[in-house]
Amino acid sequence: MPACRVCYRVAMKLIAFDGDDTLWTPLSGVNLSDRTATDAVGWPHFTYMPLPDDPLTARRDDGALFALCPEAAEVFRELRDRAVLVGVISYNHEENIRSILEAFALLAEVDYIVAEWHSNKDKMLGKMLAQARVDGHSMEPGDLILVDDDPWEIYRGQCARMGAGFSRFGVDILDLRDVLAMDNPSPPI
Questions:
Q1: With contact defined as beta carbons under 8 Å apart, do 156 and 54 qualify?
Q2: Residue 22: which of 88, 99, 119, 109 has the closest Cα?
Q3: d(CA 1, CA 4)
Q4: CA nearest 43: which of 56, 52, 30, 28?
Q5: Residues 96 and 33 sit within 8 Å (Cβ to Cβ)
Q6: pLDDT digit string (tens) for 68-99?
Q7: What is the dihedral of CA 161, 133, 115, 25, to 10 degrees?
Q8: Is the pLDDT of residue 106 over 90?
Q9: Residues 105 and 55: beta-carbon distance below 8 Å
Q10: Is residue 3 packed enough to be buried (19+ CB in 10 Å), middle (13-18) or exposed (0-12)?
Q11: Percentage of the chain modeled with pLDDT above 70
């Protein structure tokens, strides 16, 4: 397993992953809910099917392709075995997130999905935290981490303000398996 660049040992209860460019790579120049590269509102009703010869690649009903990180299923199963809740947080439409997770056979491995058409992932994390509490999990913001590629470099600050952990995919960690070697990877700002 690759070593993570930033590791702190604090027991985490929930790890939330971003979708585009974290769990999967958009191969066709559009993100999961985008109709075009500059789509301002997205489309919530796409469907996704795995390619028959490559279950790690899904084709959207309009032909766009998305490649799942090869280690994602392994990481989700290991987190479940460790009794860590798994969430997906995404600047997308929730129906599309559910559909692609189903295409990749990962939907059953995910405890919570919050996908909304905005970049306020702290608000999405707050909703996920509230859902977990409703389900009976005793949890505070410091009990969760967001793993995101953070292309605009705003999510670390959002997480810090709410007291949640953050790990930037592609910078702090280079492989999703790195989350298995850490519990609270967000260094102080």
A1: no
A2: 88
A3: 9
A4: 30
A5: yes
A6: 999 999 999 999 999 999 999 999 999 999 99
A7: 80
A8: yes
A9: yes
A10: exposed
A11: 90
